[in-house]
Amino acid sequence: FIYSAINYEEGDKFEFKPFDERIHGIPQSIIQGRFNDDDFDDIALVAPQSNGLHVLLSTGDGKFLQQIYHIKNSPISVVRINFNNDSIDDLAILNSNQTIGIYLGTKLGIFSEEKISFQIGKNSTDQSFQLLKVVDLNRDGKDDLVLIDPVEQTFRVLLGANCNKHF
């Protein structure tokens, strides 16, 4: 995994600051978020082959601190969501067994073990969802989850994915 910060300089020159970080497995889905209580953009990605969730917390100086979480069911897509309405970014992860796991974030940038998991089809072979997105489709102020199945050329919407539980 290579991250490059692009800085604009006078005279239309760009400065690239490469950042190399070893990721086990092949990253399949990557997102940006603020996963701890600072003002720096962090990165989260999943690697299905290694059942890994990698969270890279920015230190603000072009460096990152990496945390690796083992996910049980081959994660294939990750999105940032504020599931429990506490203003701290949480993660929703679509797994290859067609479940979505919710990992609650903390101010320290540490994610809880999977507290919530739900099946998105009648059984694990019901659909072949490969992509998860978060949007507010009905403009009610709550995040909605959109799942995309490229094989069947369908999508599914889960409205109001937030909850007010504290775990």
From TrEMBL:
InterPro entries: FG-GAP, Integrin_alpha_N. It comes from Adineta steineri. Transmembrane segments: none annotated. Coiled coil: none annotated. This is VCBS repeat-containing protein. Keywords: Signal. SUPFAM superfamilies: Integrin alpha N-terminal domain. Pfam families: FG-GAP_3.
